[in-house]
Amino acid sequence: MSKKTVLVTGGAGYIGSHTIIELLNHGGYEVISADNFSNSSPKAYNQIKLITGKSFKTYKLDLCDIHEFDKIFSENKIDGIIHFAAFKAVGESVELPLKYYHNNIASLVNLLELCRKHKTSNVIFSSSCSVYGNVEKMPVNESTPLPKAESPYAYTKQIGEAMIEDVCKRYLDFNAVSLRYFNPVGSHISGKIGEWPINKPNNLVPLITGTAIGKYPQLTVFGGDYSTRDGTNIRDYIHVSDIANAHVLALDYLILKKNKINYDVFNLGSGNGVSVLEAIAAFEKISGKKLNYKIGERRPGDVISVYSDSRKVEKAFGWKCAHDINSMMKTAWDWELYRQAEKF
User: Fold this and answer.
1) How far, in Å, CA of 27 to CA of 12, rounded?
2) Does domain 4-185+238-269+307-321 have CATH number 3.40.50.720?
């Protein structure tokens, strides 16, 4: 198979950068990355090249500007797209809903418009377990009815999935997959790239490692009175490289025309629910450091508990998690130590 060209939107971001590494190591794809660096660093591209020894084309632009976005399609023949570019902080989306509706939805509308204009198919959409909201029956699977979203961020993912499904119904030559992944954590096994937000992170693990290394004086656990085994939220944590690998397998699935229908949805998760306090304990075990944390008030938009049934994706792609919670914490800590040593 001759090399296909894949566009990765949000390619300097956490999952985007790890996916580019997987794509370059795959050998079957030429990579183009688009990012506006609103919450990522162009230094991520240098780390990708350091790890892989390979170069790729990049564009700095805002996907909400369709004329700027069109440059990529006009200057390149795009065979597939992996769409990560979106704002993703649940709490911020509650405070600034219009920011999230504008960015996350307008960018996807533009992407779909340009796909039709330039006859590009094969889209992998970065969705989220947040679409499931608060559900009683666990684990959730792809047939679990979607309730009212708990945050504007989650609602943008529900809307995004619906938009893509509608486009696939209208244009039968258009192929897409939505991957609902659970909580991405950890870093590349090299320890040379990981979660690298420009602003203070909202996700648990970089807050844990940042507190342990002294960036933050104390970690706040948002809520200790939930109806869970230890009172804290339960999540399905999944290593970022496992998620990246699944995106490449999903792209192969569409490019090689293994799909029997032109739109489908898959969960990506370990199938194991881990509480916030259990995650902290796992970090303390692998790092040998006692974490300074306190139990605070609940955070608006957070769901109580969610974890995945991932049998569907295992059957379709042959995908399974290769990392457990200890590996996730070790690689995250390795990255934090590397950043400190390199003064990133």
Assistant:
1) 20
2) yes
